[in-house]
Amino acid sequence: MNYLIGIDLGTSSTKTVLFDETGEVIASAGKEYPLYTPNNGWAEQKPEDWRDAALETITAVIKESGVDKEEIKGLGISGQMHGLVMLDENGEVIRPSIIWCDQRTEKECEEITEKVGAKRLIEITANPALTGFTASKILWVRNHEPENYAKCKHILLPKDYVRYILTGEFATEVSDASGMQLLDVPKRQWSDEVLEKLDIDKNLLAKVYESPEVTGTILPEIAEKTGLSTSTVVVGGAGDNAAAAVGTGVVEDGKAFTTIGTSGVVFAHSSKISIDSKGRVHTFCCAVPGAWHVMGVTQAAGYSLAWYLDNMGTEFRREAAEKNCSVWSLLNEAVNASPIGANRLLYLPYLNGERTPHLDANCRGVFFGLSSMHTKNDIARAVYEGICYSLTDCKDILAEMGVNVNDMMACGGGATNAVQRQMMADMYGCDVNTVTATEGPALGVAILAGVGAGLYGSVEEACSKMIHKDPEKECKPNPDNTKKYDKFHQIYKKLYTSLKESYQEIAAL
Predict the structure, then answer these.
(1) Could you tell me which CATH number the domain at 3-242 has?
(2) Which of 42, 310, 334, 359 lies at a 20 to 30 A Cα distance from 100?
């Protein structure tokens, strides 16, 4: 039997999973680490924590499984995107990594837009300048920590630093590199034009590979430390969402996935490059060679539910504790006790501004139509529906761009909630499915490793062998419900336009 390892380097922890070649989990291990906020709006982590977590969890799964190291043919790494790792000439970390959710770089984003041009930036990198992306972080270090910038000889992304530890190679791949704002996304290579205009030395950047390509093998000292073989190949891997796409089989046109975590993501595969000139959605190279993905992101999907339960739904938490049951089962009962449209109550989930479809940092959450007749059931349903309307907005923008979806996969927290899955199916007007595996990104990069190791001829073939849908959780759209939701969605979409000016005014107070 052949085996594959997938490493998922997240913001709160790293999880390593050992799979057999059919996609079955053999062993898994995880390790948490802290996030540091030295100033308001800043977010940093220590790359050394990622290194230690990866080495410990690899060692743990090999020991637990007892498999022959020579049968572990390939390893792939998925990672949180956009983080800046700076190394000196000796390959040592210069400063903590500024990670994806850091918000310190607003002025650097203005600098990027001015130097490259707003229109040209989107044409090349497929996205407007955003504080989360890596390029603005590089400029921030140059502007504020020139001594650290002067020491820098290598710039890597989080997962690529772990690759360097495992293989000694400086490498990245197209999906993660797409989020740096330095890649020519249509051409799948570093943009000489952007680098020249931003005065960033191209030699600082790693070689760019396709996601299933072999980037190196395990170093002897790492093999001795972890129990891996020096013949185990390490492939390009993928950014977290691109890896999740592979792990759910979203590797062909017409397929997409929705994930409801803290934020919400609608991610669709496309064999043709499609860029939104308004910058409302992200277009990145995907983990399938020669293809791209388009991704809409809503800021407060699962976060809206957490906020509601913490502030307005405390009774559900109390009752769940008393009955020793899941708070979600009680919340679902409440939602089902209210009709579609929540008795004409709408919720806009813009608690902390929005990315898709409005790209507006000042918009805020709204309950619209609230009256004395409304109950806790209606409010709960309005929150559920508002989240799904927001995700439907994302899907509608993809359709505008010619990226049509007829097969939606659900992953993340939303995948486990049958009420949310059915609501998505009804609003989207297409089937919503889940897969039996829950490892998502780790499975995705293990699949890529299987391709790189030669076990499968393509990503699509590997997905067909290693991914299994869960037929018991399939949700088909109810056409009558779709029509009802559409009427409320039309009103929902008008509310932002009506409130846009007021959002700016209240932000200025």
Answers:
(1) 3.30.420.40
(2) 310
- The pLDDT tens digits of the residues spanning 20-49 come to 999 999 999 999 999 999 998 899 999 999
Active site residues: 240
Task: Report yes or no: 88 and 127 within 8 Å, Cβ to Cβ.
Answer: no
C-alpha to C-alpha distance for 177 and 45, rounded to whole angstroms:
19
- For residue 77, give the nearest of 93, 61, 105, 58 by alpha carbon: 58
pLDDT by residue (tens digit) across 103-128? 899 999 999 999 999 999 999 999 99
- Boundaries of every domain in the chain: 3-242, 250-434+474-502
For residue 325, CA distances in Å to 258, 316, 322, 328, 337 come to 27, 10, 8, 9, 19
Q: Which one, of 280, 482, 506, 505, lies nearest residue 400 by Cα?
A: 280
> Across the chain, what does the average pLDDT equal?
95
* Residue 411 β-bridge partners: 259
pLDDT at 261: 82
Q: Which long-range contacts (CB under 8 A, 24 or more apart) does 279-283 make?
A: 279/122, 279/127, 279/128, 279/359, 280/355, 280/356, 280/357, 280/358, 280/359, 280/397, 281/356, 281/357, 281/394, 281/397, 281/398, 281/401, 282/126, 282/127, 282/179, 283/126, 283/127, 283/178, 283/185
How far apart CA 378 and CA 128 sit, in angstroms, is: 38
Question: Is pLDDT above 90 for 361?
Answer: no
Report if pTM > 0.85: yes
Task: Provide the sign of the torsion angle of the four alpha carbons 273, 274, 275, 277, taken in this order.
Answer: positive
**Structure tokens that stand for 162 in this block:** 């772990």
pLDDT in tens, 363-376: 999 999 999 999 99
Helix (H, G, I), strand (E, B) or coil at 2: coil
* DSSP secondary structure letter of residue 458: S
Give the model's pLDDT for residue 292: 97
* Block residue for tokens 């000196």: 88
Asked if the domains 3-242 and 250-434+474-502 are classified in one and the same CATH topology, the answer is yes
Measured distance CA(171)–CA(163) in Å, rounded: 8
β-strands 85-87, 154-156 pairing: antiparallel
- CA end-to-end span of the chain: 65
Q: In terms of Cα–Cα distance, which of 313, 425, 478 is closest to 379?
A: 313
Structure tokens, 491? 């009103």
Q: To the nearest 10°, report the CA torsion of 257, 295, 389, 249.
A: -10
To which CATH superfamily is domain 250-434+474-502 assigned? ATPase, nucleotide binding domain (3.30.420.40)
Rounded Cα distance, 171 and 398, in Å: 31
